[in-house]
């Protein structure tokens, strides 16, 4: 019996969970969720009813994307995503992404819902609040925490993907060479292409 993953293809939290499961070589029964009509089985497993949710064969339920990532990579981590020199730095980058950048990204993406500021002003807040610091780090190294990809890279990439997609021409024209190269490498990677493939 395979673990059951409730997912939504474009959700950044679900993407990062699928990336970790894929790199760990863990096969799952992936069930795409219609966010407007969530299945009863998902609601029964998880009161929050948001993706991703992973139901393990032993009955345990993992309701958070980071928990799914760490469960998968703790089972098998062939590329050393958890084997970073400074796990505190990984945790710090992920926390900054989730706690600081994600709310700013949502205001930028859905600027019409936040009319107190213009889209450009929301974009500038996201730049100043996270993106510029990330770019500075990625100008120094191909990956966030050294020579190889880490759990921090995989956890943050799907959110930067969304940021770049709001105004692609603007993003491509910006002097953000670190992030642009890093993002391009992710977008053409075999693992990303695999996890985004429609069933």
What is the structure about, briefly put?
This protein is 57% helix and 7% strand. The protein has nine helices and four strands; from the N terminus they run βαβαββααααααα.
Explain what you see.
The chain has 9 helices and 4 strands, in the order βαβαββααααααα. Helix 1 (12-24) runs parallel beside helix 3 and helix 5 (119-140) crosses helix 8 (177-187). The model has no long low-confidence stretch (mean pLDDT 96). It is globular. The relative contact order is 0.14. Strand 3 and strand 4 (61-62) form a beta hairpin. It starts with a strand and ends with a helix. It has a 4-stranded mixed beta sheet. The protein has 199 residues and is α+β, with helices and mostly antiparallel strands. It is 57% helix and 7% strand. It folds into 2 domains: 4-78, Glutaredoxin, CATH 3.40.30; 87-190, Glutathione S-transferase Yfyf (Class Pi), Chain A, domain 2 (Up-down Bundle).
Write the layout of secondary structure elements.
Layout: E1 4-7, H1 12-24, E2 29-32, H2 40-45, E3 53-55, E4 61-62, H3 65-75, H4 87-109, H5 119-140, H6 151-166, H7 168-173, H8 177-187, H9 190-195
């Amino acid at each position: 019996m395979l673990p059951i993953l409730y997912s939504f293809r474009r959700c950044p939290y679900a993407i990062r969970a699928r990336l970790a499961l894929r790199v760990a070589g863990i096969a799952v029964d992936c069930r795409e969720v219609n966010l407007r009509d969530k299945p009863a089985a998902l609601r029964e497993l998880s009161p929050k009813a948001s993706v991703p949710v992973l139901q393990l064969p032993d009955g345990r339920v993992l309701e958070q994307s980071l928990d799914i990532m760490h469960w998968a990579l703790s089972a098998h981590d062939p590329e050393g995503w958890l084997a970073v020199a400074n796990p505190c730095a990984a945790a710090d980058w992920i926390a900054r992404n989730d706690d600081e950048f994600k709310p700013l990204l949502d205001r930028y993406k859905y600027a019409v819902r936040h009319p107190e500021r213009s889209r450009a002003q929301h974009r500038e807040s996201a730049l100043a609040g996270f993106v510029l610091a990330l770019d500075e780090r990625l100008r120094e190294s191909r990956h966030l925490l050294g020579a190889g990809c880490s759990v921090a890279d995989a956890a943050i990439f799907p959110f930067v993907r969304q940021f770049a997609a709001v105004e692609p021409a603007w993003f491509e024209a910006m002097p953000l060479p670190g992030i642009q190269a890093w993002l391009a490498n992710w977008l053409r990677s075999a693992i990303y292409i695999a996890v985004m493939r429609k069933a």
